[in-house]
Amino acid sequence: MADALKALPITIRELTKRYGSFTALDEVNLDIATGEFLTLLGPSGSGKTTLLMVLAGFVRPDAGGVSFGDEEVLLKPPHRRGVGMVFQNYALFPHMSVAGNVAYPLKLRKMSRADIDDRVKRVLDLVQLGELGDRQIEQLSGGQRQRVALARAIVFEPRILLMDEPLSALDKNLREQMQIEIRNLHQKLEMTTVYVTHDQREALTMSDRIAVINDGKIIQLDDPQTLYEKPKNRFVAQFIGESHFLPVKVSGNHVMYGQNTIRLANPPASSAQDQLLVIRPEKFKLQADGTNIATLNTIEGVVRDTVYQGESIVLYVELDAGLIIATRQPTQHSLLVAIPQPGQKVVLGFDPADTVVVPNEAMTA
Amino acid sequence: MTVTDNISPVHDGLPPDANATALASQARLEKWRTFALSLPGLALIGIIIFVPIVWLFGLSFLERGGSFSLMHYERLLHPSYLKTFQTTFELSFLVTAFCVLLGYPYSYLMTQASPGWRSILMMAVLFPFWTSLLVRTYAWLVLLQRRGVINTWLVDAGIVDQPLRLVHNFTGTAIGMVHIMLPFMVLPLFASMKTIDRSMFRAAANLGATPIQVFWQIFVPMTIPGLFAGVILVFVLCLGFYVTPAVLGGGRVMMWSMQIERSIAVYADWGAASALGVVLLVVTLAILAVVARLFGLQHLTGKR
To answer: I need a surface site. Which of A111, A166, A217, A310 has the fewest CB within 10 A?
Structure first.
């Protein structure tokens, strides 16, 4: 199937959409490459779904431009855009069988009966529903419905695939399994995919690039690793993964947290003096007394509580300043036996490369 | 210590089927008690519905003298009764068809309207419901009669030379009945239309369906259960309708129900009236059975 597809890039320019005084999209610019898997990630009300609906043609923006390839599509009605879409609630037609649902877009395209049967069979096999073509929708489980919705969206070989939180109704295990399946399917079909989610782990797992959206603006656009390791501002650091923010004073290639000097791998982007040091709980390494490794930054504190969570154990450590931070340690036996108890003093080490400094701006969300 | 040792339960000598019999009989008793609570209601329904029906059924097979006879049924083969039968069904079909033609777009409009307009449209359906049936029927008489509002207006406006015969005939009866029956079509239709998830239409449009295709291929098929519920309701109510055909038909449109009334009021012949009632009941049930057979029983109850 892959060879028959002609994926297209998407160009979004100065896209604005207001609902009364509420700005859902604020002059959004975004280039999505051919065959890319791009995720729009943001809290509810951030504008991510509005942006997807503009691409599908269900929401008319106030201004801006959207091109698929070289073609401006903003004035085209939804049924002539030729994009596949998986809806949050699947929106399967209850009066049609599984095969009927998947065949529907092909019937609209006036394909021959034989071609339709052939394509439906191939796509149902692709999403591992080969045996269920005759079933009614109401007989299917949530995961099976999800697959039917996916099959229906890709059966007509659209140039672009849009997905609106397609996995949010599934339980955790099924969701993780489907994330991998959708990702594999994307690599096989190579269609340009725009995926909306508020689940940061899902975004990290599936995407080539992630656009973090808040208040109708894209605030960071990067690949998953850069986004997680090098957040550009406090919102991104807080929204993706767990983060601690230590108020620090910047001076050149290092920062001061109280009396502690913390070295940085890269100087901060902003030259402001008061900024925030971002540290993730899993970046800390417990340092046995007197074995401080010279290349690591260190910070001292007192353990206040420990919480065992299976794959990791969380230590809540109070720093001198009365600030409590969490550190996450793996639960290998050799480490577990040496885990400090509440009240014990600990030295936490962290690599200069694992530090990021972000501007100390007021949080908007 | 092995794992099995660790998790094996402590028996204390209790057998695995301990209390099983007692628990089962407790469950049975509970079921009976719940059923017993509905007995007064069941008895009431039995007395006021089933006893009279069986009574009438029996009467229809008795002569005046009290001996068994099929004479009441033989008489129904007379052409005048067959004509009444035909009129009743023709009128019921026609009224049901017009209710669909008017009720379907109206219900659709209600689903598309803003909440404010929707409640106004809903009031327009329900308000006549709260007015007496007789009052509404006579109101139509006032509107439709020879010197009524509609004819006066038509003549004054020069659209027609002579007043139209709009009442005391088939036309007038049909107009009045459509008006009375419309809510029974609109309410189930609207109920089924408003439960349809709007994202279905978006999905269909996304897959390439034009708005017209979305309407006919997605929306209409999904309203079929509600449509069936409305059609059956209106049709069955029409078959036994008396007041409106009697007033607006002016004696010229003879419905089955009017034959029943005449048998009792004019001839005091309960046997004949019962036979008419039994035939109407049997025919109605037969129609429902055929529909249920053809389209599935779930359509009769309006469930999807």
So the answer is: A310
| Close Cβ partners of A192 (under 8 Å, ≥ 6 residues apart) | A7, A8, A9, A10, A32, A33, A34, A35, A36, A38, A159, A160, A161
Element holding A295 (H helix, E strand): none
pLDDT at residue A60, rounded to an integer: 94
User: Chain A partners of B209 at a C-beta cutoff of 8 Å?
Assistant: 79, 104, 108
Alpha carbons B273 and B269: distance in angstroms, whole number: 6
A38 three-class SS = strand
Prediction pTM value: 0.80
CA distance B283 to B84: 14
Could you read off the pLDDT of B182-191 as tens digits, one per residue?
999 999 999 9
User: Is A244 within 8 Å of A325 (Cβ atoms)?
Assistant: yes
Helix (H) or strand (E) holding B288: helix B270-295
Identity of the residue in B197, B217, B221 whose CB atom sits nearest the CB atom of A89: B197
Q: What does the pLDDT read at residue A171?
A: 87
What's at A2, amino acid-wise? Answer: A
**Contact indicator for A339, A315 with CB cutoff of 8 Å:** yes
B303 close to A (CB below 8 A): no
The predicted-structure confidence for A12-22, as pLDDT tens digits, reads as follows: 999 999 999 99
Chain A interface includes B197 (CB < 8 A) = yes
Q: What is the DSSP letter of A340?
A: P
Contact A93 B204 (CB under 8 A): yes
